[in-house]
Design brief:
375 residues; 2 domains; 7-stranded mixed beta sheet; binds uridine-5'-diphosphate; isomerase
């Protein structure tokens, strides 16, 4: 008799949601994480009255009523709405590109004028596949240079000509006054009032769930696997298979914090699109929530390749890595392990997508054991 139905590797949003969904159906999970905290990359901690996003700024947004209802069971969200800013050659611009941006860049006065101007800027490219071609076909050379080329070069360590268009398709381009960052943001958006860490801790707070932190799956693999009927894995898929088909590439990040007095940039995030500025963005954490503190904490974010000493953050989904991934997916198909989350899927998934994936995968794993369909 096993102690647990599931051994869940990773206490991020994927692992927590999976374990909770299972607990709601009466099934028991042992959730482990090699880090000393729950909530994975959306981990936040309170420093001198400011909730600091330790692994980069995280803004929750979703078009799914189901995901929104799920997260709000476990915590309240504030009404933060993300509007971006870009700093390029010392001047600040509204971002994503909208009518205000085009007014700043070209002095256009109306949506009709903006549409007319951008039509003359667009480069005719049939079926653009790369990020560069897609952007040139949408906004033309000047806006591509100002807003995308330098940032992407720093963020990915590669020219946008070598990256897939999907990465930039996430960002809207509008000929209206709507300057909100996310395409789905008019639906549900916000930041957990008590921080992401408390939100995830609350998702995990069920009698059927035991959480053990500071435990690396690969150091105790056999002993841990013996305790549960099935393994759910949200770590790196290539590591799960001992890198036998090669290593999948990731971009990593370094975060440099500075504590200052007053207000630094008046908004939560400013992207630095100049190639000459070494960091990609500055986050000023107190602007994610109403705050009355007189000091501030700002974080500069630097991008770099992933190696054995740093964390994997962004999967590099180019053709070579996709081919390696396909081999791991085939190996995964031959096991009973449930793979999910950003690292095991090797996909650029937002938090809401990870939650939706975990609910789907948990339901399908449990339907197998319970012999009935879950609603
Ligand atoms: P993770 O959060 O990475 O959790 C996986 C966990 O597994 C980790 O805690 C890790 O320690 C653990 N683990 C791995 N291997 C092992 C092992 N061998 N043994 C034990 N434990 C292990 N999404 C949004 O929706 N909005 C945003 O604004 C946003 N901003 C982002 C900014 C940055 C800089 C990054 C990198 C991501 C951002 N995301 C954002 C995406 C978001 O972080 C992910 O969707 C989400 O955190 C993925 O959850 P996860 O559980 O799949 O993975
Ligand atoms: N991007 C850019 N300039 C910006 C912001 C984003 O070129 O000011 C590009 C960059 O390649 C980035 C991608 O668009 O990786 C997606 O941006 P998003 O803000 O969604 O990335 P994330 O918040 O996940 O880092």
């Amino acid at each position: 008799m096993k102690d647990f139905d599931f051994l869940v590797v990773g206490a991020g949003l994927f692992g927590a949601t999976f374990a909770r969904r299972a607990a709601d159906c009466g099934m028991r999970s042992l959730v482990i994480d090699r880090r000393e905290h729950v909530s994975g990359n959306c981990f936040t901690e309170s420093v001198d009255g400011i909730d600091v996003h330790r692994y980069g700024p995280h803004i929750f947004h979703t078009a799914s009523d189901r995901v929104w209802a799920f997260v709000r069971r476990f915590g309240e969200f504030n009404k933060y709405q993300h509007r971006g800013r870009v700093s390029y050659k010392g001047r600040l611009y509204s971002f994503p590109i909208n009518l205000a941006t085009l007014r700043q860049v070209w002095g256009v006065e109306s949506a009709a004028e903006a549409r007319e101007r951008i039509a003359t800027e667009r480069v005719a490219i049939e079926r653009p596949k790369s990020m560069k071609d897609w952007l040139l076909s949408q906004v033309g050379e000047e806006l591509y240079e100002m807003f995308f080329r330098g940032y992407t070069l720093k963020q990915w360590g590669q020219d946008p000509a070598n990256l897939p268009a999907e990465i930039a398709r996430r960002i809207p381009i509008r000929m209206t006054e709507n300057d909100r960052y996310f395409k789905d943001s008019s639906v549900h958006e916000g930041i957990p009032v008590e921080g992401y860490t408390n939100l995830v801790a609350s998702i995990l707070d069920a009698p059927q769930i035991r959480v053990e932190l500071g435990v690396d799956y690969f150091s105790h693999r056999e002993q841990l696997s013996r305790q549960a009927r099935r393994v759910v894995f949200s770590g790196k898929i290539d590591q799960y298979f001992g890198y036998e088909r090669g290593r999948l590439a990731y971009r990593s990040l370094r975060f440099d914090d500075e504590r200052l007095q007053g207000d630094y940039q008046s908004v939560a995030i400013v992207n630095y699109t100049d190639e000459a500025v070494p960091f990609t963005r500055i986050t000023e954490h107190k602007h994610f929530a109403p705050s009355s503190v007189n000091h501030t904490i700002v974080t500069r974010e630097y991008s770099m390749p992933h190696d054995r000493c740093n964390e994997p953050y962004y999967p590099v989904r180019d053709a070579a890595n996709n081919a390696v991934l396909a081999q791991y997916e085939k190996l995964a198909g031959g096991t009973s392990v449930v793979f999910g989350g950003r690292l095991a899927s090797y996909r650029y998934l937002d938090m809401d997508q990870v939650i939706a994936q975990a609910i789907r995968k948990a339901d399908s794993a449990m339907e197998g054991s319970l012999g009935r369909t879950l609603t």
